[in-house]
Write a structure and sequence with these properties.
Length: 187
């Protein structure tokens, strides 16, 4: 609940600094190991397995997937953005109806702000545009060929300092007053 409040407060005052995408052009479609940095984010496999990026991931040159030990896109992992982002959208590609599904969790500073379950088998856009976030966690439950993720588009969030709730300010004032009374009694 606290993370949702913080995210809402940040979103209310966040402005788009500049539109951005993830750059997968430097990879030629081979497993990159357990971590990949496409510029703007770090993608990490959940168990240290491979990440397939670039051409060959569900027919897209600008995407990736988390590989199992048998080189199938059915594993999960994490995408940590270099900074908080907003207006995030991306595609889920290559899912087989009734066999492939993934749940995606969005976090800001370690607090859950949203989640999305994709299990229709249809290719489509995943929309986290209503949230400010810095991390995505992909939990893949696929049993066919799995899914790939592509066409990431987002804005860098301009995050101001989050104001303390009024109750916290009252508490700080009360603590300060008690300290002043204590010093007065000693004197």
């Amino acid at each position: 609940m606290k993370a949702l409040f913080i995210s809402a407060a940040i979103l209310a005052s966040a402005t788009a600094a500049n539109a951005a995408t993830l750059d997968f052009s430097g990879i030629q479609g081979f497993s990159t190991g357990s971590a990949y940095v496409p510029g703007g984010a770090t993608i990490t496999h959940e168990s240290g397995g491979g990440i397939l990026a670039g051409p060959g991931v569900a027919g897209h040159t600008d995407g990736f997937c988390f590989l199992t030990s048998s080189y199938i896109c059915e594993a999960g992992g994490t995408m940590a953005f270099d900074t908080a982002v907003t207006n995030l959208t991306f595609d889920i590609d290559g899912a087989a109806p009734t066999y492939d599904s993934v749940e995606i969790f969005a976090y800001l500073s370690g607090g859950l702000v949203s989640s999305f379950l994709y299990d229709s088998g249809d290719q489509g856009v995943t929309d986290f545009s209503s949230y400010v976030l810095d991390t995505l966690v992909f939990v893949d439950s696929s049993t066919a060929a799995g899914v790939g993720y592509s066409t990431f588009s987002f804005d860098i969030a301009d995050i101001p300092a989050v104001p303390l709730p009024a109750s916290a300010l009252l508490l700080l004032g009360a603590v300060g007053s008690m300290g002043a009374l204590r010093r007065k009694r000693k004197g």
